[in-house]
Amino acid sequence: MKNDVMAFVRRIDLVLLGAVLLLVGLSVLLVWSATIHRDALTGGDTTAYLRKQAINVAAGLVLMVGVVATNHRWVRLLTPVVYVGAVIGLVLVLVMGSTVNGSKSWVVLGPVQVQPSELAKLAVVIAMALVLAERSEGRWQARVSLGDVVAMILVAAVPIVLVLLQPDLGTTLVLGVTVFCVLAAAGTPRRWLALLALSGIAAATTVVATGVLKQYQINRFMAFTDPSLDPRGAGYNVQQARIAIGDGGIFGQGLFQGSQVRAGFVPEQQTDFIFTVVGEELGLVGSLLVIGLIGVVLWRGLRIAARTDDLFGRVAAAGIVCWLGIQSFQNIGMCLGIMPVTGVPLPFLSYGGSSMIAVLLAVGLLLGISGRSRRTGLDRSGPLQDLRSRDRLQVAAVRKDVAFHRQ
Length: 407
Description:
Its EC number is 2.4.99.28. The chain is mostly helical. It has one domain. Helices cover 70% and strands 3% of the residues. It contains 16 helices and three strands. It has helices spanning 2-11, 14-35, 39-42, 48-69, 72-96, 116-136, 146-164, 169-185, 190-209, 215-222, 234-248, 259-263, 274-307, 311-336, 353-371, 388-406; strands spanning 98-100, 103-109, 112-114. Strands 1-2-3 form a three-stranded antiparallel beta sheet, covered by helices on one side. The longest helix has 34 residues, at 274-307. The radius of gyration is 22 Å and the shape is globular. The termini are far apart. 44% of the residues are buried.
């Protein structure tokens, strides 16, 4: 038993763990810096958000350790519970949720605000992985069938529709692209992926053409190309974010010293626009360091997906990487003015308990998969390759056995 525990610990991806700890530690400082001079936000308590974010990080790390210590096959068994819980949370948002910035995304439980759409991102990934794993068991051919693809899309469609009804366009976009990536990770044929992409474009066009999205929502979404489309909302945010990042220069103005940060010119700077604090106070060097650390997380996640011989773990790990990568690109691009202002948080850094806990739960699953991976070498076919190679090995073994008995 002791030897098994030690072997598990040795296999845990310490590079991934180190990058995550650096990011969440930096998150506490950045959130504090973004709020320390905001008396209207903190009520004069300069350490209020420091304590809150520290609690968010601590809670997330405790849950992460719990997931790491749990065999990810138990996570597989609990996936239906997580999925149903996320769906119920999204329904409650529509019934009794609080509206913030035009989206009804929050459920207030006493002193705590919960954002179920953050948990839904993880729930969709692991639910799709579970559907594929369950349908593939006992099957001679491991390749993905049309029925598998339809089943995974149906599982993902329920949370996506509920999020769209809030309406939360940013999370809908992240979920939609993540679902596409999970399907690719599962080994869906390219022609089917192309058809799905065209269907997604057609659906988006229909949503705009039929008036499901209001004009102000479209203007807000497109304000990154022309800030005058939404001068008091997203357009203003884009302009101020660009100014803040530009003021940082190469080395930044120093932590807690950013002029734009101190003046509070960038709205939602502790949440959606936390990267502007990085840019202004830590400069280009700090920004590249943060992007590099996120890149390390994504790289190690892909490596874990490639090394595991468990289908559920492989697809779930690849899906988590897709989700974190897409959301990071969207958030940083939004702050730089090259992507629409959609209001999605930056993984590991933005203030918020729901986001931090969901992300660290996902990291816990990655670490658990890495600790229980029996493969010692990197699978050069990559995590987005299905298990057809396993089929070929099985067929070769059977043919060899038949040839032996014929002799």
